[in-house]
Amino acid sequence: MALLEIKNLTVTFDTAAGPLRAVDGISLSVDAGEVLAIVGESGSGKSVSMLAVMGLLPWTATVKADRMAFEGRDILNLSPAERRRIVGKDIAMIFQEPIASLNPCFTVGFQIEEALKQHMGLDRKARRKRAIELFAAVGIPDPEDRLGHYPHQMSGGQCQRVMIAIAIACNPKLLIADEPTTALDVTIQKQILDLLMQLQAEQGMGMIMITHNMGVVAETADRVIVQYKGRKMEEAGVLSLFETPEHPYTRALLSALPENATGDRLPTVSDFAFEDAPYKGDRA
Ligand SMILES: Nc1ncnc2c1ncn2[C@@H]1O[C@H](COP(=O)(O)OP(=O)(O)OP(=O)(O)O)[C@@H](O)[C@H]1O
Ligand SMILES: [Mg+2]
Question: Does residue 96 have its Cβ closer than 6 Å to ligand 1?
Fold first, then answer.
């Protein structure tokens, strides 16, 4: 049984300019221990589709799906209370903007201990011990001391680590990482990616890695979904995607990698015409 299974997900926002279809019939599944990458340009609905899974979209969003199930259990029609019991514990998400997702009014220690209290039912002493362990695991120096810091007292990279620590605090079965390294400088990017992949392997987590970086895909993913304008353009194992990209949009993404550059200028995705090319179907 798949860890997460989504069939025909659509998300429509009610906007002043009329309805906006941000996600247009996405289907996907992730197994335990598997890393699924979702790639695609800005605005292609990557974050929105995952926020729909988490139940974190604003009320202006209408979410529909033929199926959205976690470990075989429907999660689309859960009551908010039932949903909270799963989301944040069994499914955790590292948000795209770490600093915006931490609460500026509380210390980072309070925020991670709150997650441990809500979902793990640990007492005060056990929470503190676990929080220190988690901060150490994500490479935050002087973890005990850091628990008393507020988000604004920490760098972007440190906040990102705090977010990761909170996300993995309750040993989630599925971790959704939304551009977990984009906000960071290159040396820290590599450290954070290595850390995530280490945790993923150790805990056998299923993982959805959202990125627009094909280099990150090559390093982390087992399988890849290429998304464009809210639709799935292509789905394939990471090797077949890189070796024989079927879809023009995928080829465009790949040729925008620096190592694939041929002329004196890096091509961008908009240099290619692919809008009318149909979905090519799933490959192994
Ligand atoms: N709250 C909202 N209200 C209206 N439209 C929204 C809202 N949130 C997102 N959108 C729109 O939905 C579409 C998909 O956005 P989404 O954030 O999922 O893109 P993305 O693929 O994650 O892009 P990026 O790579 O920049 O993170 C965009 O057109 C965006 O403007
Ligand atoms: Mg996004």
Answer: yes
